[in-house]
Amino acid sequence: MCEIKQKMQQTLINKEDERYPRLLSGKYPNIDAAASEIIQLQAVLDLPKGTEHFLSDLHGENTAFTHVIRNASGVIRRKVDDIFGMNMRMQDKNALCSLIYYPVERLALVRQTEKDIEDWYRTTLYQLVAVAQTVSSKYTNTKVRRLIPKTEYTYIIEELLFENQKEIDKQDSYAALINTIVEAGQSEKVIVSMCELIHRLVIDTLHIVGDVYDRGPGACEIMETLCTYHDFDIQWGNHDISWMGAAAGNLALIANVVRISIRYANVETLEEGYSINLLPLATFAIDHYGSDPCEAFQVTDFEDNSRMQRSMQLMSQMHKAIAIIQFKLEGQEIARHPEYKMDDRRLMDKIDYQKGTIVVGGKEYELTDKNFPTVDPKSPYTLSKEEEGLMMQLHHSFTNSEKLQKHLRCLYKHGSLFLVRNNCLLYHAAIPLNDDGTFKKVAVDGGEYSGKELFERIDKIIRKAYFANRDTEEQQNALDYMWYLWCGPDSPLFNKDKMTTFERYFTSDKELYTETKGAYYELANTRATCDNIMREFGLDPEKSRIVNGHTPVRTTHGESPMRAEGKRLVIDGGLSKPYHKTTGIAGYTLIYNSHGLQLVQHEPFESMERAIEEGSDIHSRVQLEEFKYHRMLVRDTDSGKEMAQQIEDLRKLLVAYRQGLIVEQ
User: Fold this and answer.
1) DSSP secondary structure of 222-236
2) Which end of the chain is more exposed for a tag (fewer CB within 10 A), N or C?
3) C-alpha distances in Å from residue 550, one per residue of 30, 547, 576
4) Number of domains in the chain
5) Which residue has the higher pLDDT, 609 or 517?
């Protein structure tokens, strides 16, 4: 200890090294303040690691997402089982869990069925306090107080949580407090706050490994939840990037977002969620495609056709109208950027509009739809005046939607292309690789980059697209690159040779629908490749894992979410309803707590009503690993290492105070 103090004293003699302790002295103005912070940080280091919850590919399925985060992928149910064991009947456990998941809704049901409601309130408050005390045991009282919902009942909840029930006199006080809550008619408000606190305590950090948007109707609601969540991050997926680029003003991506929203019949996300006015598109579609059957553009509605206010025929016409506009705008993108090497995707000029045929890959095919009323064969990528006016209206709607811009800022604030956290490497889709497994060099922003450097460069470009000075060449190029990330061959969010949207709409030869995946999708199933990737991102392969999504795990075909000897976990198990027939399940989530890693498999979510009434939970789970020798502590995590460094800096500040190098305030 003396040697450490001597070294600190020697380094602090140097004025440059004295600068940071002086900055710290503004926050910790004397020895007592610095010493107190050291003691608190040291206490946190010895607590168990907080629980991390990983989800991927939500695709607008808000009801399923809400249920998964409210039951914490079964964590709350396991806590209830541990606390009450055989002392509580199964149906009572189900009811308690249902209350914790959906307190407001469950309380409404209880009021209708419970004969002695005050007795029920007392019993329930005791049970909730027991759960809250258990799940808060891995945190300091300071952190627990910070997580308690800020209401007029905050102080009461503190008293309930921190009361020492082992002392007889305290027990009487404790019972009296609960009786007072019930007699004052405040039970339900306290119960709701307690349930919210349990939600916050049971999951320390939520990781979304890409794709909040598209397909399902609830992306806006998911984003509202995330933007107020106590601690979350997101690794952007291809569908997120499409929406981010659209919100930032990329016309091709605006058309793409509208097309996909119509394709999956979730225009309410645009119109009701984000106040995007689609009436001009409907008017345009009637004017130009009113007599067109648009057979290839039939809308797929996975919910209930009755919720569609417009006729399905009109929706199909709108679908075709915006698709044609998208193909024109994408052709313009490719022409502006020959470095994308995507000229084979400029198909509008490969059409013989008189014969009704198209040449793809040197071979001629007959078109299944030959009606192109807004296309000038001499200049097929030029928008008509009406199309141009329509896109300007949509551009204004997207860039001026208050809620969409709020969610865009949230995605930027909490998001990144990849994340390294606690020996896990998180990214949504792929890392461009050569066939031999080496990292592929990709042309980006005037240079060539690969591996981690490629991801870091692309992350900067994504931020430029929104934060760079508007209407500059730098900002426009970055905005264009957002479109490339959606469908470019070497995009880490796509990583296929092409996107065959045009061929699927206008040709019947299924060979043209083939999209060849990049080398990553096969090679990343091997341990050697995953080890190489983890080393590239600064991780020890023996202690680390890759977590990604993007590709649904087809359990009905025998696929497993665990790849490369368990070193890569693919947690897109099909939360989106359109994938349920393919995957046979409703998604995977990952739980990472102080005891180990747990991969949870979900069955399709039936309804919120059933969850409220029956407390339905996770039906199966697979344990990946347990820490055999000791529980993982905060000191073992990335944040723990940062705390250890803070302690070291504060110790230097103490030396500076004691040596008179910095004067106490």
Assistant:
1) HHHHHHTSSSEEEE-
2) N
3) 52, 11, 12
4) 3
5) 517
Q: Do both 184 and 249 map to the same domain? A: no
| Residue 115: inside a domain | yes
- Tell me the pLDDT tens digit for each residue of 470-499: 889 999 999 999 999 999 999 999 999 999
Q: What is the pLDDT of residues 517-530, one digit of tens each?
A: 999 999 999 999 99
Burial 101-128 (b: 16+ CB within 10 A, else e): bbbebbbebbeeeeeeeeebbbebbebb
Closest-CA residue to 57 (of 301, 235, 309, 310): 235
Environment class of 645 (CB within 10 Å of its CB; exposed 0-12, middle 13-18, buried 19+): exposed
CA of residue 277 relative to chain centroid, distance: 27
pLDDT at 417 over 90: yes
Q: Are residues 57 and 95 in the same domain?
A: yes
Strand order in the sheet with 52-55: 415-416, 232-235, 205-208, 52-55, 588-593, 596-601, 620-626
Separation between Cα atoms, residue 55 and residue 61, nearest integer Å? 12
Tell me, what's the pLDDT at 168?
46
Task: Work out the average pLDDT over 354-376.
Answer: 96
Please tell me whether residues 42 and 117 are part of one structural domain. Answer: no
Residue 151's pLDDT is what?
86
Same domain membership, residue 373 and residue 332: yes
Count Cβ atoms within 10 A of the Cβ of residue 538 and give its class: 0-12 exposed, 13-18 middle, 19 or more buried: exposed
d(CA 203, CA 503): 45
Nearest to 514, CA basis, from 498, 495, 502? 498
* 86 and 156, same domain (yes or no): yes
Q: What percentage of residues in the chain have a pLDDT greater than 90? A: 67
Q: What backbone phi and psi angles, to 5 degrees, belong to 496?
A: -130, 165
For 58, the domain range is 52-209+549-632
